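Researcher: Quick test of sequence recovery. C-alpha cells follow.
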C-alpha cells in the first residue's frame, strides 16, 4: 500500500452494514420469521450507471451513479439524490433502507429509495451541472415515475436540479409529469413549505423531546453540524422557538459562541463568503470539536458516521437530534445509551422533508395546491403522531428511541408484506 492510499473503511463505518444491524435489532424483538427478515434486510433493486457528460472545454467525462430501491411494498419508492465525491453503492443502499423505515414510521404510502452520483459539484460549471443532472435523470428513467419511484433533493442537490430532472423526464415522455420528483420550484408544481420542511421537522422534534424530558427550550443550548438545507433551517427555526444556537459548522469549518450566535447574521455571512467560517463575534472550532462542545442538544446535519465509538464517550450534549441520515453508528449508540444520552433517530427527526414531499406529490397528482399554513399544520400533526408512537414502543420494551421507531416502522412494512403475500 502506498503512503497516499486511503485507509480502508472499518466495518463499523460501513453504512450498509450499520443499517442492516439496526434492522436486525428490531427484527429480533418483533420475532420476524427468517423469510421475512431475509426479504427486508436486502434491497430490492440496485441500478448502477456510468454515463458521459460533455465538459465546457469540449472534453468528455464519465460519471458513476446509482438508484437503489430498498422496498416498494407500501407504495412507490421515495428518496433523494445526492451528488458527492465520496458516495458509493453501499452508502446509497443504506440510505434507501432508512427511507423505507422513515416513510413507514410517518405512515405515508411510500417505500424507500435513494440515488447518488460520484461527483464534486463544486468542480463543475453551472452548465456542466445541468448536463450531468439531465443525463443522470435519463439514465435512471427506467426506474423513476410518479407511480414507481420519486426522487427529491439531498446533499448538494436542490430545487433547480429537481427542475432539470422533471424537465428531462417530461421531454422524453412528451408531456409534463410534475409528480415525478419532489422538492421542485413552486413555478412547476413544487409545494409551499418544502425547502424548510426538514428543518421544521427537526424543530418540531426538538420541542417534543424537550416536553418529554421536561426541559425548557429557552434554557437549552444547541450545536448544529452542517449548515446546508437541513442544518441552516433547523438553526433558524430553533432560534425562533427560543433555543440558543451556540455553534454551527460546514465544510469551511465551525464557529462557536457560548452566549449564542445570531442565526440571521450567519445566513448573511454564508451568502457573502460561501461558508460560516470567520463569522464575527465567534471563535473557530473544528468539526470534530463542535461535536464535543458543552451544549444541551447536538444536531448533526451533515453526513453519516460523525458520532462513532471513537468520540461517543466525549459527547457532552445530553440529547442528539439526527438531522442527517445515519450520523451515529450502532457502536456509538451503545456507548451513548450507557451514558444516558438520548438520541432522537434520523428516521423521525429528519422525516419532515419526505412528509412535505408526500404533500407535494399529492398536490401534483390532484393539480390542487394548498397554502403553507395547511402544510405546516399537517406536517406537525404527522410528526407528533409518529413521535408519540415511537416513545410508546420505546417505553413498552425499555429500549432506545431508535429501536422504538424501528419497531413501529419495521412492523408496518412486515405486516404489509404479509398481507400482500409473495408473488406469484
Ligand atoms: P446540503 O448539501 O444542503 O448541506 C450539507 C451541509 O453539510 C453543508 O453545509 C456542508 O458544508 C456540510 N458538510 C459536509 N461535510 C461536512 C463535514 N464533514 N463536517 C461539517 N459539515 C459538513 O445537504 P442537506 O440536504 O442539508 O443534507 C444534510 C443531511 O440531511 C444528509 O444526511 C441528508 O441525507 C439529510 N437529509 C436531508 C433532507 C433534505 O430535505 N434535504 C431530508 C432528510 C435528510
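Model:
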Amino acid at each position: 500500500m502506498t503512503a497516499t492510499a486511503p485507509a480502508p473503511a472499518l466495518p463499523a463505518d460501513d453504512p450498509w452494514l450499520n443499517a442492516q444491524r439496526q434492522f436486525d435489532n428490531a427484527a429480533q424483538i418483533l420475532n420476524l420469521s427468517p423469510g421475512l427478515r431475509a426479504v427486508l434486510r436486502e434491497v430490492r433493486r440496485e441500478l448502477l450507471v456510468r454515463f458521459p457528460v460533455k465538459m465546457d472545454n469540449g472534453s468528455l467525462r464519465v460519471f458513476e451513479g446509482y438508484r437503489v430501491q430498498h422496498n416498494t411494498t407500501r407504495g412507490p419508492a421515495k428518496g433523494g439524490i445526492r451528488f458527492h465525491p465520496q458516495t458509493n453503492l453501499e452508502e446509497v443502499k443504506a440510505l434507501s433502507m432508512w427511507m423505507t423505515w422513515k416513510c413507514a414510521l410517518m405512515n405515508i404510502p411510500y417505500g424507500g429509495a435513494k440515488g447518488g452520483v460520484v461527483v464534486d459539484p463544486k468542480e463543475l460549471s453551472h452548465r456542466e451541472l445541468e448536463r450531468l443532472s439531465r443525463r443522470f435523470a435519463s439514465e435512471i428513467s427506467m426506474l423513476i415515475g410518479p407511480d414507481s419511484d420519486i426522487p427529491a433533493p439531498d446533499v448538494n442537490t436542490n430545487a433547480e436540479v429537481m427542475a432539470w430532472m422533471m424537465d428531462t423526464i417530461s421531454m422524453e415522455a412528451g408531456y409534463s409529469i410534475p409528480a415525478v420528483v419532489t422538492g421542485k420550484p413552486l413555478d412547476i408544481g413544487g409545494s409551499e413549505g418544502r425547502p424548510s420542511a426538514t428543518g421544521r421537522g427537526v424543530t418540531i422534534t426538538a420541542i417534543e423531546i424537550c416536553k418529554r424530558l421536561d426541559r425548557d427550550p429557552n434554557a437549552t443550548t444547541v450545536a448544529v453540524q452542517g449548515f446546508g438545507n437541513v442544518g441552516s433551517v433547523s438553526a433558524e427555526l430553533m432560534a425562533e422557538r427560543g433555543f440558543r444556537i451556540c455553534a454551527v459548522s460546514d465544510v469551511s469549518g465551525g464557529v462557536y459562541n457560548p452566549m449564542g450566535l445570531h442565526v440571521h447574521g450567519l445566513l448573511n455571512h454564508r451568502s457573502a463568503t460561501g461558508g460560516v467560517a470567520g463569522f464575527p463575534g465567534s471563535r473557530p472550532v473544528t468539526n470534530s470539536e463542535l461535536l464535543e462542545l458543552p451544549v444541551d442538544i447536538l444536531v448533526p446535519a451533515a453526513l453519516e458516521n460523525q458520532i462513532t465509538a471513537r468520540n461517543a464517550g466525549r459527547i457532552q450534549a445530553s440529547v442528539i437530534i439526527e438531522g442527517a441520515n445515519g450520523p451515529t453508528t450502532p457502536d456509538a449508540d451503545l456507548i451513548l445509551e450507557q451514558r444516558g444520552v438520548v438520541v432522537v433517530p434520523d428516521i423521525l427527526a429528519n422525516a419532515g422533508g419526505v412528509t412535505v414531499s408526500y404533500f407535494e406529490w399529492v398536490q401534483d397528482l390532484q393539480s390542487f395546491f394548498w397554502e403553507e399554513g395547511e402544510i405546516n399544520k399537517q406536517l406537525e400533526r404527522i410528526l407528533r403522531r409518529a413521535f408519540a408512537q415511537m416513545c410508546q414502543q420505546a417505553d413498552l420494551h425499555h429500549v432506545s428511541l431508535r429501536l422504538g421507531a424501528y419497531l413501529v416502522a419495521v412492523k408496518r412494512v412486515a405486516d404489509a408484506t404479509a398481507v400482500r403475500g409473495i408473488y406469484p
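The CA atoms of residues 11 and 263 lie 38 Å apart.
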